[in-house]
Amino acid sequence: MNFEQARFNMIEQQIRPWDVLDQKVLDVIGQTPRELFVPETYRNLAYADLEIPLGHGEFMMPPRVEGRMLQTLEISPEDICLEVGTGSGFVTSCMAKLGAHVDSVEIHDDFRRAALKRLEQAGVLNVTLQQGDAANGWTAQREHYDVIAVTGSLPEYRACFEQQLNTGGRLFVVVGDAPVMEALRVTRLGPNEFVREKLFETCLKPLCGTERKPTFTF
């Protein structure tokens, strides 16, 4: 398979039409070998417009959603980033290339170990990967971040993540229940001042441990 051509087609046919026009983001995605970050069984589907299974019932986000998320976060070279949900390590790699450092937390340790190998293979070293449950925030490395990306959905908005933003910091999170959820960008303007913007509708698997418990009616 011609991965270089597939990567070009993915950008031009999936990501750019989804209003991802930031050239820095397009360049980073174009320079990142997505096939390296998918399970070998699905390597030929690395650039398809779908959610690729990773195991444990988890999936990679579709490329167009990854692109919109990276563009929304407006990551600068000096930014310290937190990623909640490492997954395959693809988004981790892109964030690390755009920013100064990425702390990434993954609840499944086999995912963390596999992602670390892929990132090392890709030469991405400005990352710290830890195993843990960050569904209620993550302060093991540092208290505050310039950028926070939550890569699984939440049934309801949680203020714990916005409280970890530096002033001027940006949070991306998807909130709601299937089949329709809302992608949000939150910007911290001051100690108690936040701007919360609705971006687009999508549907992502819930962040592990945050799934809404089923209700029973009698």
Give a quick precis of the structure:
With about 220 residues, this protein is of the alpha/beta class. Helix content is about 25%, strand content about 30%. The longest helix has 13 residues, at about 5-15.
Keywords:
6 helices; 9 strands; alpha/beta; seven-stranded mixed beta sheet; two-stranded antiparallel ribbon; 218 residues
Protein described:
By secondary structure, the chain is of the alpha/beta class. Helices cover 27% and strands 28% of the residues. Helix 1 (3-15) packs across helix 3 (63-73). The longest helix is centred in the N-terminal third of the chain and has 13 residues, at 3-15. It starts with a helix and ends in a 16-residue tail after the last strand. The mean pLDDT is 95.
Structural class: alpha/beta
- Average pLDDT, rounded to a whole number, is 95
Written as H for each helix and E for each strand, in order along the chain, the element string is: HHEEHEHEHEEHEEE
Strand content: 25-35%
Low-confidence stretches: none
Described by strand count, sense and barrel closure, the largest sheet is: 7 strands, mixed
For the secondary structure, the number of strands is 9
Order of strands in the sheet with most strands: 5-4-3-6-7-8-9
Classify the helix fraction into a percent range.
25-40%
How many helices? Answer: 6
The radius of gyration computed from the alpha-carbon positions, rounded to a whole number of angstroms, is 16 Å
Backbone shape: globular
How far apart lie the N and C ends?
A: 54 Å
